[in-house]
Design brief:
The chain is α/β, with parallel strands linked by helices and about 425 residues long. About 40% of the residues lie in helices and about 20% in strands. The chain is built from 13 helices and 16 strands. The longest helix is centred in the C-terminal third of the chain and has 25 residues. The relative contact order is 0.14.
Amino acid sequence: MSRRSYRTGDQTLVRSMNLSTVLRCIWDDRPLSRTTIAAHTGLNKTTVSSLVTDLEQRGLIHEVGQRESSGGRPARLLDLNADAGVMIGVEIGVDFCRAVLTDFLAAVLWREHCETSPLAGQDDIIQTVLTMIGDAVEHAAGSRILGIGVTLRGLVDTSRGVSVFFPNQWRNVPVRQIISEHFDYPVAVDNDANAAALGERLFGAAGTVDDFIYVVVGMGIGAGICINGQIYRGAGGYAGEVGHTKLLHSNSRPCHCGQRGCWETLANQYALVERVQAALAANHPSLLAGANPLTVERIGEAADAGDPVACQALAETGAFVGIGIANLVNTFNPKLVVVGGAMYNVMSYLLPAIRQQVDECSSSELSQMVSIEPSVHGRDACAIGAVALITQDILHDPTSVPRYKNAVRIPEERG
């Protein structure tokens, strides 16, 4: 029988926990006065003033004005400081890499996108990622860099920052270690769907929703599942590989995982392209005839022009996305499902079919509770999710951000 470990706390740990509590309180309901923070957290006013001073000295919060009171002096309001520092987020896709540089509130200051080959070797992809991070550091122009977040598909050991399995035939690649050897900043690594879900939770549509699912639709399909405000990771940390749930008999097209009948083989971007190719092979008239390469972007442009082949293929693909989401709705009863990923550019064509299938294929009581929405971050969703990994670490431990030199104390609020 394994023994449980128990954590005890000294004064330093308790203060760190209280710093986190105050920062999260401001994050959730900003701007706030010190008196309101004390009321929300149960900490006394003297302790709150000390903690607020600490957070301000680290540059994480600042005063933004005053709120009139019914009696006494106006209360000074505290808010998050967007200029606390910058964060770098990187998404490693099967056939692309994407990087963003953001402020502390995830406003994008710079972005870069690079197409890669699915056949490219691990070393080539890693070098592309390192070059993009270097570009981001250069564009940071001397700003304090709070950390680097990295997301990628497949199985990720977040505690070690290791890509256990990535569809480009990566196995046990120490992503965090590799990046840390080149850049002296905190590095966090996670699965793309989990990170995107966290990004929506901190910076997007799910800010006030405790139970929601983020579905990434691209070359594959994955899900970040948020239950009671926390990302659900499962026993081994690999929960959310929903693209490999079975929707068809075993004689269907093989998936890259080695199985047959996987949801993603019916609903990913390859399936969309194959539907268009089948229609063209049957000599259906289309603006896409002769298009090479046949991409999601070109299919979207044809649909914008009213092309029937493109519109039909998108509707059919959206229907299969919707069937899988209906299964998730029946299983988890979320209040919100956010859909994003590499097919975001054609999401307006996919969503009607997705919503229709969720209405038809999930229990009526559950379908009435759920809203199906596109990501507010568009194609940046997973890269913003990578940024959110750094934000989450700071919210958990604000002491990871050093104080500015010669920091000035914030005067205490009285009364």
